[in-house]
Amino acid sequence: MNCSELIFTGHALTKMFARGIPPEEVRGVLGDGETIAEYPDDKPHPSRLLLGTVHGRVLHVVVARDDATQRCYVITVYEPEHTKWSPDFKRRTR
């Protein structure tokens, strides 16, 4: 994802710290991840759910992008649970 600046929200930082997910892993998903869902009506900016694997760890990253400034805002980051997602982690099952 092309971003002029990457901003981590307070929520994202709290969750990353609690889950032991460093910023470098999030940047890896943003650079190489696959968009598995888009939320064009999110406010104040459209967002998307990215799926990526960094050092063998599967991550979901929700990121919003301000098209006017090209700033990206990391909303949340988590490891998808096997019981709630399809085996490829692309579709929610529950």
Rg of Cα set:
13 Å
Number of helices: 2
Architecture in CATH? Answer: 2-Layer Sandwich
Uncertain segments of ≥5 residues (pLDDT<50)?
Answer: none
Summarize model confidence as the mean pLDDT.
95
Biggest β-sheet, characterized?
5 strands, mixed
Percentage of residues in DSSP E strands: 35-45%
- CATH topology (level 3) name: YaeB-like fold
CATH class: Alpha Beta
**Tally of discrete structural domains:** 1
The count of DSSP E runs of length 2 or more, i.e. the number of strands, is: 5
Strand order of the largest sheet: 1-5-4-3-2
Assembly state (oligomeric): single chain
Please give the alpha-carbon distance between the first and last residues. Answer: 28 Å
What form results from the Cα inertia axes? globular
The ordered H/E elements are EHHEEEE
Q: Structural class per helix/strand content?
A: alpha+beta
The helicity comes to 10-25%
Walk me through the topology.
Blueprint: E1 5-8, H1 10-19, H2 23-32, E2 34-39, E3 47-54, E4 57-66, E5 71-78
Parallel strand pairs: 1-5
Antiparallel strand pairs: 2-3, 3-4, 4-5
Describe the protein's architecture and organization.
β2 and β3 form a beta hairpin. The chain has one domain: 2-Layer Sandwich (YaeB-like fold). The protein is of the alpha+beta class and 94 residues long. The protein has a 5-stranded mixed beta sheet with strand order 1-5-4-3-2. It has 2 helices and 5 strands; from the N terminus they run βααββββ. It has helices at 10-19, 23-32; strands at 5-8, 34-39, 47-54, 57-66, 71-78. It is globular, with a radius of gyration of 13 Å.
